[in-house]
Every structure is written in C-alpha cells, then in structure tokens.
Amino acid sequence: MSTPSSPASPAAARAQAETSRKTAAVVYNPIKVSLRDIKKSVKRHQKEVGWNETLYYATSVEDPGGGVTAQALEAGADVVIAAGGDGTVRNVAEALRGTDASLGLLPSGTGNLLARNLKLSLDHLDSSIATAFHGVDRPIDVGVVDIENADGSRDRRVFVVMAGLGLDAKMLANTNDKLKKRVGWLAYVDAIVRSLRDDNRMNIRYDLDGTGKKSMRTNTIILGNCGLLPGNLMLLPDAAIDDGIFDIVALRPERKIDWLGIWLKIVWENGVLRRSRTGRRIMEHTPEIKTVRYMKGSELIVRLDAPQDFELDGDSHGMAVAIKAWVDPLALRVRVPA
Description:
Layout: H1 10-20, E1 24-28, H2 35-49, E2 55-58, H3 66-74, E3 79-84, H4 86-96, E4 102-107, H5 113-117, H6 125-134, E5 136-149, E6 154-159, E7 162-166, H7 167-173, H8 177-183, H9 187-195, E8 202-208, E9 214-218, E10 220-224, E11 228-229, E12 233-234, E13 246-251, H10 258-270, H11 277-284, E14 292-297, E15 299-312, E16 315-336
Parallel strand pairs: 1-2, 1-3, 3-4, 4-16
Antiparallel strand pairs: 5-6, 5-16, 7-10, 7-15, 8-9, 8-15, 10-13, 11-12, 13-14, 15-16
Helix pairs in contact: 2-6, 3-4, 7-9
C-alpha cells in the first residue's frame, strides 16, 4: 500500500514559487538615463506581473554592456532591459545572442535604431518598461562579423541593425560628441560635410554567398538587418529583420554632384514614392542610378586595399582591412507589445 506523500512545507512552497517566477535585469548607461525614474516604473510593472525583484547593472567605459549582461544571465535573468544608446543595445544583444533570455529596449540615445525599426516607443519610459514586462518575444536575425583590424588583430562582433565600411563609418568617426549631445542627430550633418572633403573612394574585393570574387570601387558599403534610419530615412527599403538575409547597398558617386542623386533616391523614392501605389508605378518607369547598387545575401566577405573605417550599429569600431559577415537567423528575442 502506498503512503500519501507529506505536504510541502510553507518554506518549500515559497521557494518553488520564487524559482517559477521570471526575473528581469536592467543594464543601464548611467550617463544617459535616470535610474530613479527607471526603478519607479519597474517596481510597478514588476509587481503587476508577479516577477522577482529586478536586478540592476551599470555599464562603464571598461564594460559597455556585454560583461554585466553575462552577470545578469548567471544571476537568472529572463529578460534584460537595455537602457542606453545604440551601443548599449548592441553590447547587450551580443551577450544575449543564442540564449533563452529576451532583450527589452528602453531607448535613451540619439539613434535608437533597433527600437525605431521595430516601431517601438522612442520617448516614453513607462511604455517601454511596460513592454518589457507585459509584452511578447519576437525573434529577430543577428548579423555576426569577423573583423581583421589594421594592426593584424581579429575580433568577432554582432550587430542588430547595420554595419558599414568606408564613408559611412568615417562619418561616425568624425562626429563631434559634444555637438551630438547638444543637437542630437543633426551633429551627423556636420560630420558628413567634413567627411566629404576628402576623396573617400576605396577599392574592394568581395564574395557574396560564395558566388566568386568580384571587385568594386565604392565610397561605402553597408550591410543591413533592417533599413530605417533616424529622420525617417529608408536606406534599405526591402530589408526585413527576420528573413535570414542581409540587404546590402554600395554608394558609388564619381563626382560630388552625384550625392544629390543618391539623396533623392533615399529620400524621394524610398521615403515617398514607395509608400503609395501611384508612386510605385512611377518608380517602375524610373531608371536605376548607377551610383546606388543594391544586393542581397546571407554571407559577405570583403577585403580592402587599405584600412578603412568600420562601424557597427552607429558606433565606430576602428580601422579594418577585411570582414566576413553572416546572418545568424532568429538568434535574438526582443520584447514587443503583445
């Protein structure tokens, strides 16, 4: 005859309830966010969903987010909320890639590129935190890139929005940080003007999806996981964040006047005409300009004749002489509104 099992003690029942509840962690840039405001909102939403006490980790110059995110995962975090700029988001995403934990977004920078492309709230702290606690997971692709640096060293990094070689990255390297704090995204206009003073053309050899080596002369080449920039500029109109491929664009002006055609392509065609049926009909009869070349693929290898600036999600990485980039499909879960 079997004997009835004894009921669990109140302490054991509480311990089991604690382990079954979720835990959130906030990885925050103390320069860009108010921890007091974050904690006030988090406390309310955490209580509403019945989660454990939220963990908090500050980023630093030495650790811009990856190390403390790893600590949060070791402590049992199910959702890690990145509270900072695009650099904070990228570093947190890099540590979360391939794990079961989800990324919550609390946009606090100038670009807010990932939140912008996912059509999330950009300027409402409580709404963003509510999404982290009450939302659902959306799997997205991640770009992975092996970088051969100018000094011969090698790095492996990830990006969630875009990576760029050449003028695109040079512009970011030339951005005045003090001006950026005062006027935000408009600081990049100043950087563009200063970057265009030089001859920015570069010779590259590339191989897209193993189709063979080709050569190209270009000013910049950008790999996109998604296509929207601040100012509602649609650089890569066909990009989808979960389709398993990169959308790639090479900008190849021969003269400074060619930049006008590129600008019209991005602002007028991509941003205006493409959004209506009539506009798309007009585009069907508009010849493609040779200064803008679009490509698609899941793996791109690029080798340069000379070191060039390289950027990841709007942050300058330094000078690179070669990269190998590929898509890691649906490798990151991001919290979005239910």
